[in-house]
Amino acid sequence: MELDRRSERTKYWKVFLTFAHNSLVRDMTFRTNFVLQCISSLGWTLMNVGFYLIIFQYTTSIGADSGWDRDKFFLFIATTWFINSLVQAFFMPNAEEFSELIRTGGLDFALLKPIDTQFLISFRRVDWSALSNFAAGFIIALVALYSLATRQIEPMTPSILSILLYVFFVACGVAIMYSLMICLSATSIWLGRNQTLYNFWFYITNFSRYPMEIYNRGWGRPMYGFFTFIIPVLLVVNIPARILAKPISPQTWEDQLLIVWGLAATLLSLWISRWVFKCALRSYRSASS
Amino acid sequence: MRFLPIVTQIFLWYAIFDSIESTQGGNLESTEIRGFHFTDIVAYYLLTMIARAFSSMPGLASGIAREIRDGEIKRYLIQPIDLISFLLLTRIAHKMAYYAIAILPFALVFFLCRDYFASGWPPWSVLLAFAGSLVMGFLIGFFLEAAIGMIGFWFLEVSSLLFVYMLFSFFLSGHMFPLTMLPDNVATVVNFLPFKYLAYFPAAIFLGKIPEEDLPMELAIEACWLTFFIIVCRIAYARGVRRYSGFGG
User: Where are the domains of chain A?
Assistant: First the structure.
């Protein structure tokens, strides 16, 4: 039985590798287009970095006493970039295709395959060019870490433990985003067509781009609560970025509670998205024929 | 929903002003970045929404390029219709129909945010200049994008080029942040570019960031840019049509 499950797992892994390979072949067929896509997404990164550099000409940190000074904030940006590029590379093209499959009835074929439908739907395409932003995030992170380690005031280097935790929670963040995306695209089964998916996605993730502290005041509080506990997009970037950018030892119990909640939120949202997906599939009624 | 990105932006700027205030002392009212107080920033973002409502042309350039590629552009060549005027009139009609409805949520948001307009309504002359800059912003946006779409006569695939243009216009039009915050030497260059008329310029006029005595000159420069783009667009179209060859039915 145990052996069975393991061979099952390697099978899925193999299928995934085949998907990734096929996508790479497809991307490489139109190589110039691929390069142009990489360049334009790097352009977007550069513009954002420019914007934040301009901001930090005028201020020393984002929010009074929040501790997000320039280097730490750039670590935050790098984290956003990691997570977004992973989501865009692995899930975005699939979510778009899913809506299309439902509309055209192509989902029938996916349902017939002897493989978990959610797996098949979520991993079919890999957009390799989106990973160029992952590299960009890596460079930003390295520069920020270097200047964080060598600066005069409060130099710091993250410990091995915090780096490991960081990687783990980046994965959690990707999982939360993935769940959200599956839920959103599953709604197109009910709506027939969900073209606003991309817009909606953009608006929601917009909130995850900045440190969560900035929402925690005045009329931002309801939003702060909503995006932490109901749709946990604020946790996605904030938890890993906090682990890396703020030293781990003098931590308040609030921080620890947040980490625990982050873990719980990941599991919960994965579970809920699975449930929503299955519910949605049950009301799927093909197209034509 | 379109206002949500602004909401996050407002929180970001509030946090920024908050930290400047705490390091330099003083209070929120006296803290400023290059002449922009916190309330000005919020007003600025709201005003750029209006400017963008006029100057943004979703799908114009890509539409022209597609029609060239698919050969649909033939019908403008054999019918007694001028492509550019036809598209311009379509745009005007579309904008009017769309914003006849959208003016309600706009008005509501502006009414709710009226406190952020600290200096109240500007004088009539400024309002007039504001209206003029909006109309010219619309026209510049139109002819600029149409001219870019005409590149489709020479290259078949322009989508990546369009994306680059979009990036530039997003950054340099002041949609992202007030252009005065750029470092001085960069700001000088950006001030010579036409992108600022798409978002920054109308908002700056309304907020009184451009001295009133300079207004006529600035508007004249904008008119020059507009003429320039009309001419470029016309030449590109005339040249492009000469290059163009349609096959089949």
Answer: 2-282
